[in-house]
Amino acid sequence: MSEKGFTLIEILIVLVIAALLAVSVMLRSGSQTTENAKTVSDRLRSIFIYAEQQAILQPATLGFDYVPKKYQFLRYDETGTWQPLTSDSILRPYFLPDSIQLIVSTRNNADEKHPAIIFYPSGEITAFKINVILKSNKKILYQITGESDGDITAVKIL
Predict the structure, then answer these.
(1) What is the residue extent of each domain of the chain?
(2) Which of 61, 124, 140, 148 is most exposed, with minimal Cβ within 10 Å?
(3) Cβ atoms of 119 and 61 closer than 8 Å
(4) Domain 37-156 is in which class?
(5) pTM for the whole thing?
(6) Distance, CA of 148 to CA of 146 (rounded, Å)
(7) What pLDDT digit, counting tens, does each position of 113-150 carry?
C-alpha cells in the first residue's frame, strides 16, 4: 500500500528552512536601515564642514534648511533673500531614505524666511543638534552637533 503525503520530519525541515530565511531577511533589512542612518550621519557631518569652509572661502552666508524627507543648502544673496544652491554638486538638495528622519534643534528662530542653521563668513555657525532617527521605532541612532565656534561632531547613540 502506498502512502501519500509528507512525513512530520519533512514538514519540520521545511518550516525550519522557512524560518531561517525569514530571520535572515529581517536581519538584513535591519542592518540596511542602520547603515542608511550611518551614511546620512557621515554625509551630514562632512557636508556641514564643507559648507563652513565654503562660507569662509567665498565669502558668503550659507544656510541649512530641512523639511521632512529633504534637506538643502541656501545662499544669502545681495537682494536679501535665501536662494537654494542647486548647481553645487555637494550642497545640492538631498532626499533622505524613507526609513530615516532628522530632528533639528537650534537656538535660532528658523522660519520660512530663515534657514535653521547659518554658516557665516567669519567661521561661526548657528549652534545645533541633529538627531538621526529610525522612523519605524523613533530610535535615535546618531547625533550631530555644531558649536557656535564651528566645531562639528557626530556620535553614535545606542
Answers:
(1) 37-156
(2) 148
(3) yes
(4) alpha beta
(5) 0.77
(6) 7
(7) 789 999 999 999 999 999 999 888 888 999 999 999 99
